[in-house]
Design goal:
The complex is a heterodimer of chains A (119) and B (374).
Chain A: E1 2-4, E2 9-14, E3 17-22, H1 24-30, E4 33-37, E5 44-45, E6 50-56, E7 60-64, E8 69-74, H2 76-80, H3 84-87, E9 95-98, H4 111-118
Antiparallel strand pairs in A: 1-2, 2-3, 3-9, 4-6, 5-8, 6-7, 8-9
Chain B: H1 11-16, E1 20-24, E2 27-32, H2 37-46, E3 48-52, E4 57-63, H3 68-76, E5 91-97, E6 103-111, E7 116-120, H4 125-132, E8 138-142, E9 146-152, H5 156-163, E10 175-180, E11 183-188, E12 197-203, H6 204-215, E13 220-222, H7 225-234, H8 276-285, E14 289-296, E15 307-309, E16 319-327, E17 332-340, E18 348-353, E19 356-363
Parallel strand pairs in B: 3-13
Antiparallel strand pairs in B: 1-2, 3-9, 4-7, 4-8, 5-6, 6-7, 9-12, 10-11, 11-12, 14-17, 14-19, 15-16, 15-18, 16-17, 18-19
Helix pairs in contact in B: 2-7
Classes of the chains: A alpha+beta (119), B alpha+beta (374).
Chain lengths: 119, 374
């Protein structure tokens, strides 16, 4: 089941890891994405730490780690094809992160709650 | 409390087209339409884009004595360009300067027979009108009952000629009035995209009808401020408040060319505008830094304020980015910065981005080849 953050990230549990991307709403707000800088695999990050730089034609933004953990994989294909974030944001994942426990997911919004957030 | 935003005569049309409206220089303007900045940009370079530029200030300057040269001479006291000698039906680019030789605003001015028509930046309009009204011997009239539309792109002339056949006869920087179903339109063949195109001043009560008549043609799409910015950046055109300010002289802004020979040190009407001593000395002796193009080697855009260094490590900044983004037609990031003139085109310098120095190549402006109909 997908969970959502107030920073418009979607989170999907897979095994003991969380796959992270941004929502359609976020990609529409950003506009055409032209550059993505991904974190190094193996990096240990704190919750709220900036881990991805995402640049659209209009502006630069950050994506933060939703939880503390270790970055286990990044979608390096995105760096070459940043427009995928606009074309299909729900499959254009940025990174996988392994938290101490998947219980942290309970604190995030479900789809209904996120839908209310973005109106 | 924020001042209420002004709306152009095309506000309803923008909303109907699905535009995202943003505050800009006191106006509520479309930044993009559902097509998106990238596609809008490419559409303009491929076909024709329609821009609402009604926020820009249109100002009429009439001579009180009926002699246009009186108005031209008065304007030359505040504009660092040759106003006198501009033939009827022609338009020219100029700069308002301050006492230090810095740029107060840039503008287009056209000789319309018995008066001049000036088009100034929205954010500077109030200031410009105030000091124009301080000139003697002229009547200064802000145009409040008209909007301004730009139609830009390789199909602009063909489309416009379907409505106004005579528009096709105009050359780059021509300015004239044309009748459209009894409506008096003021046209110039110019723009801010690097493409052939027109700027058309339309009475407010016909603005939406005229815009819709253009949009009814398949080649034409509405284009927002986002793409307007990336188009002008690729065309190497400076933006007021960013690439030029009151602290930047014409030579430092790379706009020395706008000061015609007649106003220079050896000219018939040398100086006579604010800051002329500084401006003319720089034109004669050169400057250390000027506006240059930059192309980052990677994909990351470098934006306004990013510092430029000569070396990959250490040293002090040699300039900073005044405009920078992604160039959709170039297919990569592009920027402009005031950096040393003695750096050759093709030289590598370094932009400090998020704590890292990235190699960027000094590049001649513009980034694209303009296609004006001269």
């Amino acid at each position: 089941m997908l969970k959502y953050t107030v920073d418009h990230e979607w989170l999907r549990a897979e095994g003991d890891e969380i796959v992270v991307g941004i929502t359609k709403h976020a990609s529409e707000q950003l506009g055409d994405v032209v550059f993505i800088e991904l974190p190094e695999e193996g990096r240990e990050v704190e919750a709220e730490e900036e881990v991805v730089v995402i640049e659209s034609v209009k502006a630069a933004s950050d994506i933060t780690a939703p939880v503390a953990g270790v970055i286990t994989a990044v979608n390096s294909d995105l760096a070459d094809n940043p427009g995928n974030v606009n074309d299909d944001p729900m499959t254009a994942w940025f990174f996988r992160i392994k938290p101490a426990s998947l219980d942290v997911l309970d604190s995030f919004m479900d789809e209904a709650a996120y839908g209310e957030l973005i109106g | 409390m924020a001042e209420e935003l002004r709306r152009t005569g095309l506000y309803d049309l923008h909303v109907a087209q699905g535009a995202r409206m943003v505050p800009f220089a006191g106006w509520e303007m479309p930044v993009q339409y559902p097509m998106g900045v990238m596609a809008e940009h490419l559409h303009t370079r491929d076909k024709a884009g329609l821009f609402d530029v009604s926020h820009m200030g249109q100002v009429l300057v009439h001579p009180l004595d009926g002699d246009l040269d009186s108005a031209g001479a008065a304007l030359e006291t505040v504009i660092a360009a040759a106003v006198l000698g501009l033939p009827e039906g022609r338009q020219r680019y100029g700069l308002f300067t301050n006492d230090r030789g810095g740029i107060l605003d840039d503008l287009m001015f056209a000789n319309r027979g018995d008066h001049y028509l000036l088009v100034v930046n929205a954010a500077c309009a109030e200031q410009d009108i105030a000091f124009l009204q301080g000139l003697s011997g002229v009547e200064v009239t802000p145009v409040t009952d008209r909007g301004l539309i730009a139609l830009q792109g390789p199909k602009a002339a063909e489309v416009l000629a379907r409505l106004l056949p005579a528009a096709a006869e105009m050359r780059f920087m021509d300015s004239r009035s044309l009748d459209w179903n009894g409506v008096d339109l003021w046209l110039s063949r110019s723009g801010y995209t690097g493409e052939d195109g027109f700027e058309i001043s339309v009475p407010n009560d016909c603005l939406a009808t005229f815009a819709q008549a253009l949009l009814d043609h398949d080649e034409v799409a509405p284009i927002g401020l986002g793409a307007r910015d990336s188009l002008r950046l690729e065309a190497g055109m400076p933006l007021y408040g960013h690439d030029m300010t009151g602290d930047v002289t014409p030579s430092a802004a790379g706009l020395g060319w706008a000061i015609s020979k007649a106003r220079r040190a050896d000219g018939a009407r040398k100086g006579g505008f604010p800051g002329a001593a500084t401006v003319l000395a720089e034109l004669a002796d050169g400057v250390s830094h000027t506006r240059r193009g930059l192309r980052p080697e990677g994909r990351a855009p470098i934006r306004e304020g990013v510092q430029i260094f000569a070396e990959a490590e250490g040293g002090v900044p040699i300039g900073d980015v005044s405009s920078g983004s992604f160039g959709p037609s170039v297919g990569g990031p592009i920027a402009m910065a005031r950096i040393p003139v003695d750096l050759a085109d093709g030289a590598t310098v370094f932009a400090e981005l998020r704590g890292k120095r990235m190699p960027v190549t000094v590049t001649a402006l513009p980034f694209i080849t303009p296609s004006y109909k001269r």
